[in-house]
Amino acid sequence: MNPPLTRRELLQRGAAGAAVLSLPGFLAACGGDEETAATTAAAKELAERLRFSNWALYIDFDEKTKRRPTLDEFTRKTGVAVDYFEDINTNATYFAKIRRPLSQGRGIDRDIIVLTDNSRFPALLLHEGWLEKLDRSAIPNIDNLHPSLAHPRFDPNREYSLPWQSGMTGIATNTKLTGGEAITSMERLLEDPALKGKVTLLNSMAETVGLVMLANGDDSSEVTDAGFDAALQRIERAVDSGQIRQFTGAEYTGPLANGNLAAALAWSGSVVQLVADNPDLEWHLPESGGAIWTDSMLIPRGGDAYTASTFMNFVYDPVIAARITGYVNYMSPVKGAREELAKTDPKAANNALIFPDDETLAKVKMFDHEALLNQDYAERWERLIGA
């Protein structure tokens, strides 16, 4: 197991190398063995270890003890030790890493992985038969799932996936590099000469193309060939002009916090975290609108479905969910988490980026899932970003 890193250490590493409620989805889940599904939890055994891959800074961490309280409590209550890996940086690179062993019928030494619903990869994993079904008998707390997240198109009944956290995509600014002014428009991000070479975009097609489509006056939730082409051409011009330094996953955080970037397409929760250490940072939805997404827990082929499902049940307790949300600062999918968080951290419970109001949610769009599965779009996007 990799030793845990503090937030500051993660930011330093990034510099050296340098998010509520969406309804994505497309493919229907495959049928399961009804007799197996009816097996009682009492007849099952937990594994000795749970192997869990996640994104960086995505679960609570005690910087004094260098421990992860939620994982430690799960171990105390169940006897299951957790091997926790912060080895997901982008959906595409992680999928590329696990695709070969899964396609060969092998496991990947993981029981839970976390991928984003507005990428094409959860749907591809499900379509290829590379996911294990959740053991719903071990997840009574699934009743706490927020109703608006219950029926994504790629997994309509949440038989193979359960949300971890949700978030929004907008623009983060290091105001120290912009004369104290936050960047709030895609026009400035893509075309302001003062920002040339000091901007990064996300390597997620749904987020970057989606936000540029909105800036062009097109609807990213109903993608047309003309709208996609216009957005891609605008991004390409920004790349060719030198405006865009690179396309990133989570690694934008270090350079942004350390003053090596002026502005970046960024996730709401990561900037809420970074602001705690750097008050020069601001995050805003673009004036033309932003994106919304959900990261979901999945059980890859060969993973222990019962042990993984038991963990999912544990983190769907509102008290535990509130603890996680209070640290990661993304949007919890668990009903009751906000009320529990208000008891210990009223400021976080009232933070509009963690629990956005209806006005904010009206400004964000889910990217068209049919477009995510369009192979021509995917190949053209990958050529543009150099994937």
Characteristic key phrases:
387 residues, alpha/beta, D-Maltodextrin-Binding Protein, domain 2, 2 domains, eight-stranded mixed β-sheet, two-stranded parallel ribbon, 17 helices, 10 strands, 16% strand, globular, disordered N terminus
Descriptive overview:
By secondary structure, the chain is of the alpha/beta class. It has two domains: 7-166 and 293-355, Periplasmic binding protein-like II (D-Maltodextrin-Binding Protein, domain 2); 167-292 and 365-385, D-Maltodextrin-Binding Protein, domain 2. 37% of the residues lie in helices and 16% in strands. The chain has helices at 7-16, 34-37, 69-78, 91-103, 121-127, 186-191, 205-215, 225-240, 253-257, 268-275, 305-315, 318-328, 337-344, 346-349, 358-361, 369-372, 375-385, and strands at 49-55, 81-88, 113-116, 161-174, 199-202, 244-248, 263-267, 281-284, 290-298, 364-365. The strands form two sheets. Strands 3, 4, 5, 6, 7, 8, 9 and 10 form an eight-stranded mixed β-sheet that branches. The protein is globular, with a radius of gyration of 20 Å.
